[in-house]
Design brief:
By secondary structure, the chain is of the alpha/beta class. It is built from 15 helices and 7 strands. The structure holds flavin mononucleotide.
Amino acid sequence: MMDWTDSPCRVLHRCLTKHARLYTEMVTADAVLHGDRVRLLGFDAFEHPLALQLGGSDPAKLAQAARIAADFGYDEVNLNVGCPSDRVQSGRFGACLMREPNVVADCVAAMRAAVSLPVTVKCRIGVDDQDTEQSLRTLIDACAAAGVSVFAVHARKAWLDGLSPKENRDVPPLDYELVYRVKRERPRLTILVNGGIETLDQAEDHLRHVDGVMLGRAAYQNPVLLADVDARFFGDAPVDLEAAVDAYTEHVERQLACGARLHSLIKPMLGLYNGRPGARLFRRHLSENAARHGAGIAVLREALGFVRERRAA
Ligand SMILES: Cc1cc2nc3c(=O)[nH]c(=O)nc-3n(C[C@H](O)[C@H](O)[C@H](O)COP(=O)(O)O)c2cc1C
């Protein structure tokens, strides 16, 4: 998610779940080809398994970007066919490509030919006045014919004409049943459902119908729910929240020593203790102090004191 799932966020999430697959923010193929690659694509080895999400509609550029992703060590390359922003539409990629399934198929075919990594697609169920019964199946079948077998479906339309990107995440109604039907009809494809899933109970319900669940806002705004993912879905040991926070704190300390700013490192932590005693003080202490010049690890440790002392008391 743009501006959210940067490397610090993914490291925090990885401290909370060893098994969930993590995704980068969308990076355009042009940015990969012409931008500062280390800044755009660099990640911590701890983040695996990690997918790079690309945006674009030029098969040759996407193929080259996928090759670069493979060289960087990503585990998967995902093509964005879901983002509704104007900037994205004017570049002819994201959700508007729901109207151009053959272009998407050409893109994923070129990416698959370029790399041995899994190439996957994240899409909507349709855009604007499209008939979603048709648009989702057509997009998926075109990509499947080009060899893609994994699809993450944000189960609502994007209305490109009239709604802001934010509204497009909430206003068009969710149609999970359509995604379930498409999975039932195509049992060999791996279908993940996304959109409006806020709890692991809800995730478990969806898993009766599809192969996977993708969490967006809930994972960012309430990251603590990730601490139950390994035990609940992967048969692994439960993750202790405080041990995970300690592990992330050590990461913060190492990054500060390399010159990173505290402010960007603590951003994904702000929602960690929501609803728990001391959460407001924790957030306020970080918000007020982490951006100060020279702010160091002590600011984070003091903030953690507000939630941990409450627990001990
Ligand atoms: C701040 C923000 C940035 C997002 N950026 C991306 C993105 O880069 N690529 C993408 O596929 N979806 C992006 N999304 C959409 C989410 O991945 C997801 O599809 C959407 O929020 C619905 O799922 P949710 O209800 O679990 O959040 C973004 C969402 C938010 C809130």
